[in-house]
């Protein structure tokens, strides 16, 4: 009876992991699109400052930032921080998108897991619509995660069964 229940749980978890696994490529794509939107927004903000830098500082944003920093007005000094943050955001989004769009599928998965921005991933998840992608990478990911979980569960089950039979045989020998 216990074996039947365990097999049912194993099969259910296998199926759930498969469904989750095939969603990973679609979620990464949605996350990448979200980052792309963030990049476009950051570039749009930076464009206005770039126009000023083009007119006043031969296109150098660094010189514009320095001029703002050196201004005696505190509000204008604080604008240098805003511009610097915008430049850093554009560079960070470009780097993240490059890593999510280039390299092998496995490299992109590892990059995503290692460098995920939880806030942006949460925003992506809110808007994410699960789908059943018919691409090989999604199916392989689903099968891999399912097999991994199933192997782990079966290993735990067999270890527990072995431990239980060892304790039962030791206690019958002592009796």
Automatic annotation (TrEMBL):
Pfam families associated with the record: DUF2937
In the UniProt record, does the keyword Transmembrane occur?
yes
Q: State the source organism's domain of life.
A: Bacteria
- Which residue ranges traverse the bilayer? 12-31, 138-158
Q: Which keywords belong to this entry?
A: Membrane, Transmembrane, Transmembrane helix
Q: What is this protein called?
A: DUF2937 family protein
């Amino acid at each position: 009876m216990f074996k039947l229940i365990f097999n049912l749980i194993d099969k259910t978890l296998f199926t759930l992991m498969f469904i989750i696994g095939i969603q990973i490529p679609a979620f990464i794509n949605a996350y990448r699109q979200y980052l792309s939107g963030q990049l476009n927004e950051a570039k749009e903000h930076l464009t206005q400052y770039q126009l000023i830098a083009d007119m006043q500082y031969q296109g150098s944003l660094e010189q514009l930032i320095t001029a703002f920093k050196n201004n005696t007005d505190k509000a204008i000094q604080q604008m240098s921080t805003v511009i610097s943050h915008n430049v850093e955001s554009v560079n960070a989004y470009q780097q993240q998108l490059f890593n999510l769009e280039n390299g092998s599928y496995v490299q992109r998965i590892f990059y995503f897991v290692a460098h995920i921005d939880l806030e942006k991933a949460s925003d992506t998840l809110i808007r994410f619509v699960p789908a059943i992608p018919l691409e090989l990478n999604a199916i392989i990911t689903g099968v891999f995660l399912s097999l991994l979980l199933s192997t782990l569960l079966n290993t735990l089950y067999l270890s527990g069964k072995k431990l239980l039979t060892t304790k039962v045989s030791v206690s019958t020998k002592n009796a």
